[in-house]
Amino acid sequence: MTVRRARRDGAVGGRHARVRPLLALPVLAALLAGCGIRATEVPTDFGPAPSRVHCSLSEPDVSTQAARGLAARVFLLCGSSLVAVDRSVRVPEGTADSERRVLVAQALLDELETAPSSAEKEAGYTTDVRGGMGVTGPRPGDPEETLRLSAPPNGLASYALAQIVCTFSDSTAAEGDGSVILGGPGDEPLRSYECTNEVRTRPGSNEPPSSEVGGA
């Protein structure tokens, strides 16, 4: 009888010994949670890293570009900045300088209004300039470098105005110092606009600085 009881006590003790580590697991998990450590049994898959806009295009074929017309650049939006992209414009030979300025400005404006190419879209480029806008030269009494848009410049969205000013200032449509005199179809005062580093970096927050100039 004594032997049987000892065996039973030993069996019970063995079961208790095996149960104690199991009971300790929840306690250990609670302690780890209290320390800010979260145990995981399988790796967590958060999916692929988000893609980034790289705003980079391969170099254009210069010979092909020259065959299409006069090399030029337009400023498109990429991310939150303005980035120059190569284009070409056609101007008939023998065009007078005053007329050439208007033709170049209109051609560049048309490029800004055109949706970016597939490669440019893939690189993250967009434009905020809407279609249907025209450009004319100065009225009587305007400075000879004046470009008048068919829409008031002060009514354009900040991104669109920045694109137009920076594109014109980087072309033969600008004055010698890179500033651009713009007006609208009405009698609003003409203004001379500049494309600064701040405008190119953050066109949505920094409008092109301008000053009023004399006009008709």
Please describe what this structure looks like:
The protein is α+β, with helices and mostly antiparallel strands and 216 residues long. It has a domain at 70-212. It has six helices and eight strands; from the N terminus they run H-H-E-E-H-H-E-E-E-H-E-E-H-E. The chain has helices spanning 2-34, 62-68, 97-113, 118-123, 158-169, 197-201, and strands at residues 70-78, 81-89, 125-126, 135-136, 147-149, 180-183, 190-193, 210-213. The strands form two sheets. The chain has a five-stranded mixed sheet with strand order 4-5-6-7-8. Helix 3 packs across helix 5.
Question: Topology, please?
Answer:
Blueprint (H helix, E strand, L loop, with lengths): L1 H33 L27 H7 L1 E9 L2 E9 L7 H17 L4 H6 L1 E2 L8 E2 L10 E3 L8 H12 L10 E4 L6 E4 L3 H5 L8 E4 L3
Parallel strand pairs: 5-6
Antiparallel strand pairs: 1-2, 1-3, 4-5, 6-7, 7-8
Helix pairs in contact: 3-5
Strand neighbour order, sheet with most strands: 4-5-6-7-8
Instruction: Tell me the helix content.
Output: 25-40%
Overall, the morphology is globular
H-E order: HHEEHHEEEHEEHE
Q: How would a textbook summarize the main sheet?
A: 5 strands, mixed
Structural class, judged by helices and strands?
A: alpha+beta
Indicate the low-confidence ranges by residue numbers.
2-8, 15-19, 21-52, 61-67
The overall pLDDT average reads 78
- Count of extended strands: 8
**Beta-strand level of the residues, as a percent range?**
15-25%
Gyration radius from CA atoms, angstroms: 34 Å
Report the total helices.
6
Taking the alpha carbons of the first and last residues, their distance comes to 124 Å
Region (Disordered): 115-151, 175-216
Protein name: Lipoprotein
Organism: Streptomyces dysideae
